[in-house]
Specification:
Helix 7 packs parallel to helix 8. The chain has two domains: about 5-105 and about 225-250, 3-Layer(aba) Sandwich (Udp-n-acetylmuramoylalanyl-d-glutamate--2,6- Diaminopimelate Ligase, Chain: A, domain 1); about 105-220, Udp-n-acetylmuramoylalanyl-d-glutamate--2,6- Diaminopimelate Ligase, Chain: A, domain 1 (3-Layer(aba) Sandwich). It contains nine helices and eleven strands. It has helices at about 5-15, 50-55, 80-90, 100-105, 110-120, 145-155, 185-190, 205-210, 230-240, and strands at about 30, 40-45, 60-65, 95-100, 120-125, 135-145, 160-165, 170-175, 195-200, 215-220, 245-250. It has about 260 residues and is an alpha/beta fold. About 35% of the residues lie in helices and about 20% in strands. The radius of gyration is 19 Å and the shape is elongated. The longest helix has 13 residues, at about 230-240. A six-stranded mixed sheet has the order 5-6-8-9-10-7, sandwiched between helices.
């Protein structure tokens, strides 16, 4: 199978025009030759040196990332930094790179949908279109302290930052994967009637606004977005006949970790 058949499948599911405007030039097929035959595929949040080594050791010649590998313009490729060294190996070893970012966030069965499913939200609202990052759903009435412990367990992280009264009853939950923690995101969650809002990164002014408006917050690691790839890998195997050829990297590309005093 040619790489182009895989990228066309992905772009049909997660169209580039569903990504926010500033994101679109960075997405899609970004490095390599789509007419090459695929050996194996690696799915990863980020393309780091360790991920590249993982791809090579597993015989993968297509790396699919969530975060764009070339996010800012690259004016020089000098082999004194990680990105340039990665580009050198990609070129020498005919490794190809494809990226899906905000189009994967909002897409049908994309990251926001998968988060809502993992957390067992019912009556979920939110469109699979450009700019519609907020998902809102319902849970059985639960104390906030019990709910954030549940979220930590479901996302398999060792902790989370939270805002709010532990005894507050949570019924209506909003979420936005990745960096969905601006003050505007908080206002959207408040306007949607959420009791609690979950994201991967929350800014201090946004947290302060949430506290003032009695909106509980749960901030998990940005790297929790990786959860989407386990279901996507199975779908690619089934839909494209890539049985045993789609691998989710075991490399954790989020260097931030939660420590407890």
């Amino acid at each position: 199978m040619k790489i182009k058949e895989i990228t066309e499948y992905l772009l049909n599911r997660f169209p580039l025009d569903s990504a926010v405007d500033h994101d679109q030039p960075k997405l899609g097929f970004v490095i390599g030759d789509e007419n090459r035959e695929v050996t194996k595929v690696m799915l990863t949040l980020d393309l780091t040196w360790d991920v590249l080594m993982d791809a090579l050791s597993n015989g993968c010649n297509l790396i699919i990332t969530h975060h764009p590998f070339i996010y800012y313009p690259t004016h020089k490729i000098v082999l004194d930094n990680e990105k340039s060294r990665i580009i050198e190996i990609l070129m020498k070893r005919d490794i190809n790179v494809f990226s899906m970012h905000t189009n994967l966030d909002v897409g049908f069965h994309g990251i926001d949908d998968v988060w809502a499913n993992v957390l067992g939200l019912s009556n979920v609202s939110g469109e699979n279109v450009k700019g519609s990052f907020l998902r809102v759903g319902e849970i059985e009435a639960t104390k906030f302290s019990d709910f954030y412990k549940f979220v930590i367990d479901q996302f398999d992280v060792n902790g989370a930052r939270v805002v709010g009264d532990d005894d507050k009853i949570i019924k209506r939950v909003g979420l936005c994967s990745g960096a969905g923690g601006s003050e505007n995101d908080i206002i959207d969650a408040i306007n949607a009637g959420c009791d609690c809002y979950i994201s991967g990164e929350i800014k201090l002014p946004a947290a302060q606004r949430a506290k003032y408006d009695n909106l509980c917050l749960i901030e998990v690691n940005h790297g929790v977005e990786k959860i989407v790839f386990y279901s996507l890998a199975k779908e690619m195997e089934n839909d494209l006949g890539l049985v045993d050829k789609v691998i989710v990297t075991k490399i954790n590309t989020d260097p931030l970790r939660t420590v407890i005093k």
